[in-house]
Amino acid sequence: MLFMMIVKASKNSEAGNLPSPELIEAMTKYNEELVKAGVRVAAKGLHPSSNGIRLSYPESGGKPVLTEGPFPETDELVAGFFLIDVKSRKEAIEWAMRMPDPQGHGEGQIELRQVFEASEPTSKQ
User: What is the pTM of this model?
Assistant: First the structure.
C-alpha cells in the first residue's frame, strides 16, 4: 500500500528558513531508517510558495487561470513529502508517528494519505 506523508508548510518554511542542524540530523536519521526498512519510495522538500505557480479552473470546461506565489494560506500549503510503500494503514501511521517535528519550533504538521493504485476501485460501494 502506498501512502504519502505530506509535510505541511509553516511560517518558517514559507519564509525560506532552513531547519536547524539538529533537525537536519534527525530527519537524515529518519530517512535512513525508512530506506533501511525498505519502505521509502521517494522523499523531497519543496521550495516556498513564493517560487510556486497555481493553476485554477474557475469555470467548468474553461481555460485555467495561472497565479504566481506566494500564497497566503500557509496552513494549506505543502513543504515536502515522503512516499512510503507499507503493508497496512497501521504501519503507515507508525512510520508517520516516528517522524521528527518536520518544521521544528512546534510548527510541524503531517498529513497521511493513501495513494490510489491501479488495482484499487476508485470509490467505496
Answer: 0.86
